[in-house]
Amino acid sequence: MSTRTPLIAGNWKLHNTVAESQALAGGVRKRVRDGLPCQVVVAPVATSLVPVRETLAGSAVGLAAQNVYWEDSGAFTGELSPALLLDVGCTHCIIGHSERRQYFGETDAGVRKKASALLVHKIVPIMCVGESLEQREAGKTLDVVLGQVEAATEGLDAVALAPLVVAYEPIWAIGTGRTAKAEDAQEVHRAIRDHLGALKGESWADTVRILYGGSVKPSNADELLAEPDVDGALVGGASLSADNFIPIIDAGVRRAES
Fold first, then answer.
1. Catalytic pick from 99, 106, 131, 169?
2. Confidence at 179, pLDDT banded by 50, 70, 90
3. Does the pLDDT of residue 177 top 90, yes or no?
4. Where do the domains of the chain lie, and which CATH numbers do they carry?
5. Residue 106 falls in the annotated catalytic set
């Protein structure tokens, strides 16, 4: 099995008040002890970042933002910069999520700028890629996904990209209850790793953690994480309940210990 440390990330999307976010973070914190062989991060809404940071203080749970803008400051109403995310304690940031691409016009070029800016500030980008159902049925999955990977890492060398995390999220499986079969996820994850190796070097590509996202839940987490190139999960709906999220973390621990 891989020496890559599994990563389980909870994307809370547009859910939870401050009080609800703190309660959920507290439930996750109880499970994640120092020295756990699986890394855990949670991504609350922006208004809850500071309160959740306070709830998680001194714990092994990392704090992630759901989006970022690539400039440090300026006349960019409504945006949050990497510097501001660092200031409130973020260790990770999700970029390129399909919902950002679909509803807010996020592009591969923008994802690349965001990744570069985050890396400058030592924040780990969790870079999402994935195909639509139409693209999948047309046999274009790898063309689309590898094209997104290549465009979002263009001009960045392996040294700069060292902390990068990639999340493969087939759009047709997000929030739908549909999940890629474990062997299908593995095929895409392996192709991403091979493509990164061709672009930036095999030794670096072998260290990159590639997460699966798309209706991950306790009932399928072990099967997905048993695949050699599935290094963790980016969890949506199931991360909104500690009772559902903790079993997925447990699956990450079993992955690490296998």
1. 169
2. confident
3. no
4. 7-257 (3.20.20.70)
5. no
